[in-house]
Amino acid sequence: MGYIIGKFNSLLIFTVFLISVWNCGKIEKGRFFNDQAYHFQTLRALNDARSDGAETGEILEAVKNIKEGDPQSWFYGWENAGNKVLERADKIQDPMSKGQAYLRAHNYLRTAEFFLDPDDEKRPAAFDKSVEIFHKGLDSLGVKHEKIKVPYGDHHLNAIYYPGPAGADKKPLIVFVGGFDSTLEELYFGLVRAAYERGFSVLTYEGPGQGSVLRKQNLGFTPEWEKPTKAVLDTFLASHPKPSKTVLVGMSLGGYLAPRAAAFDKRFDGVVAYDVLYDFGEVAERTVPGIILWLEKQNYNNLIEFLVKIKSSFSPSFSWGVKNGKWTMKTASSVETLKAFRNYTLESSAEKITQEVLIFAATEDHFIPLKQVEDFKRKLTNAKSVTSVIYDRASGGAEHCQLGAQALWQADFFDWMKRFEKK
Q1: Which of 70, 104, 174, 408 has CA atoms 20 to 30 A from the CA of 272?
Q2: Measured between alpha carbons, how far apart are the two ends of the chain, in Å?
Q3: C-alpha span between 242 and 229 (Å, rounded)
Q4: Region for 22 from its dihedrals, namely left if φ exceeds 0, alpha if ψ lies in -120 to 50, beta otherwise
């Protein structure tokens, strides 16, 4: 009898799980793909158009034959687009047109490798190629930049310094870091170009778990982000004049990383969460049914892995998140990854932030619940000032990190930055 009851309970749990994942897997149809991850990554590539990183027609051509949920189809669609633009760039004589084409080819090749498994043999070559032609693009356009190798224990981090035009010394230095799946090079499109046009110098960097640090050195994320950030700033200041003011901006997961670093490094005068990310554990838990969290408490880890595998088989977004989580966090199981994510919370460090704080958020962010804005603000008891900007659908900035509406958040960001400029 006990055996029968046990089998029935297992079946009940399994049934509840299937119902849960079926319901949470229905996503509102996007502009490019039904699957939110595929739509979002297409929008991410298109988002760079304002900074010479994309053309709408080229992107529409890239995605037209991609089979949704198929990482290989995604790779070849974007790789083909990147190679076409690269071939054209090599033949162009005009240096500006040539540089712009290289930057677009870089973006498409970066996008191509995104959904591939971490151990897919095509991934390293695509990444290396994208980085190489990114710098070709900057060189052809005459964009001044300095590559900096940052000592970090037995490893090294990477940074790129983009000096501003004449008069940039009267403005604060912007330090910019990405997030969960960022690369060092794409930060140029996200903020550097716009900042230079407004007279700012920008220092971008990649830490553990990001870009080439992850791919070349197999170094995963750390919740103690003040450590890599300190290494970057120490190395930079050892060979460059100290700026009058310094503002740290973190994109996506950087919405946790930047505030965490600022809490322990008072050389920053301001910090920007673009967008808010107060508690990564809460974000991760929202992607799984409650039954999974219950099973975790009961230590049914093998069953969890089995159910995660089932969910991954029909949800490209979920599948990518599971694989990328293990890769970047250096964990062996989904349960370990979830536990690792819970370490990325500002609950105990937010009160240590004494700088001026700017928080961005979106009403329809598919990653981060809007409540985290107020959660974060309540803990900022010692901040010099706290400003929050929330975008809704009507504004055009309701997506995570305001993808598709760069001009919107940048206008608010640069207005906020005026408080740090010399009069």
Answers
A1: 104
A2: 82
A3: 16
A4: alpha
The CATH homologous superfamily for domain 144-279+344-423 is Alpha/Beta hydrolase fold, catalytic domain (3.40.50.1820)
pTM of the complete model: 0.91
Between CA 312 and CA 323 the distance in angstroms is: 10
Rounded Cα gap, residues 247 and 274, in angstroms: 13
Structure tokens at 237: 């200041």
Q: How far apart are CA 389 and CA 341, in angstroms?
A: 26
- Please report the sign of the dihedral spanned by the C-alpha atoms of residue 247, residue 252, residue 253, residue 259: positive
Q: Strands 246-251 and 202-206: what pairing?
A: unpaired
Distance between CA 361 and CA 375 in Å, rounded? Answer: 13
